[in-house]
């Protein structure tokens, strides 16, 4: 079955795995999803990840991160912003701050997939894919 919004599917799989208390989630691979996973890892939202390109499409295995004291997931919210029916593009000075800088916005730019802070530093705008906090 074809997925019409692969980014929303990616976020939903992570959200569902966290609600079920899983430590690892497997997601069908793509270059965009791999870059988004790298951004999550670099910002400390996931423990580790592995991109396995064997097979037709490949799989991204993500080890989810939980708070050791409360056993709650590190990622509190995953919100899809730009959707296939309504794309949301922002200029450099218009890129929104997520919870006053406590969260991140993943932005697809001409220089690759960046966080909102990296996009502002590189002075590039782009499509805001999602908010994570």
Topology:
Blueprint: H1 6-20, E1 24-28, H2 31-42, E2 46-52, E3 59-64, E4 78-80, E5 89-90, E6 104-109, E7 112-115, H3 116-122, E8 126-132
Antiparallel strand pairs: 1-3, 2-3, 4-8, 5-8, 6-7, 6-8
Keywords for this entry:
133 residues, three-stranded antiparallel sheet, 30% strand, globular
Concise overview:
The protein is α+β, with helices and mostly antiparallel strands and 133 residues long.
Describe the 3D structure.
It is a single chain. The protein is of the alpha+beta class. It has three helices and eight strands, in the order H-E-H-E-E-E-E-E-E-H-E. The strands form two sheets. Strands 4, 5, 6, 7 and 8 form a five-stranded antiparallel sheet that branches. Strands 1-3-2 form a three-stranded antiparallel sheet, with helices on one face. A hairpin with a 2-residue loop joins strand 6 (104-109) and strand 7. It is globular. The model has no long low-confidence stretch (mean pLDDT 95).
Q: What is the CA–CA distance across the termini? A: 31 Å
Count of distinct strands: 8
For the biggest sheet, the summary is: 5 strands, antiparallel
Cα Rg: 15 Å
Roughly what fraction of the amino acids lie in strands?
25-35%
Helix content: 25-40%
Structural class: alpha+beta
Enumerate the spans where pLDDT stays under 50 for 5 or more consecutive residues. Answer: none
Number of helices: 3
N-to-C order of helices and strands: HEHEEEEEEHE
Structural shape: globular
Overall mean pLDDT stands at 95
């Amino acid at each position: 079955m074809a997925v019409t919004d692969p980014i929303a599917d990616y976020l939903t799989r992570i959200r569902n795995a966290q609600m079920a208390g899983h430590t690892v989630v497997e997601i069908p691979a793509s270059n965009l999803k791999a870059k988004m996973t790298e951004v999550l890892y670099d910002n400390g939202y996931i423990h580790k990840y592995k991109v396995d390109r064997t097979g037709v499409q490949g799989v991204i295995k993500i080890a989810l991160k939980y708070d050791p004291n409360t056993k709650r997931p590190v990622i509190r919210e995953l919100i899809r912003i730009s959707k296939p029916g309504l794309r949301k593009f922002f200029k450099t000075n218009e890129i929104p701050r997520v919870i006053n800088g406590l969260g991140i916005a993943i932005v697809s730019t001409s220089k690759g997939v960046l966080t909102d802070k990296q996009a502002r530093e590189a002075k590039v705008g782009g499509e805001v894919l999602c908010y994570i906090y």
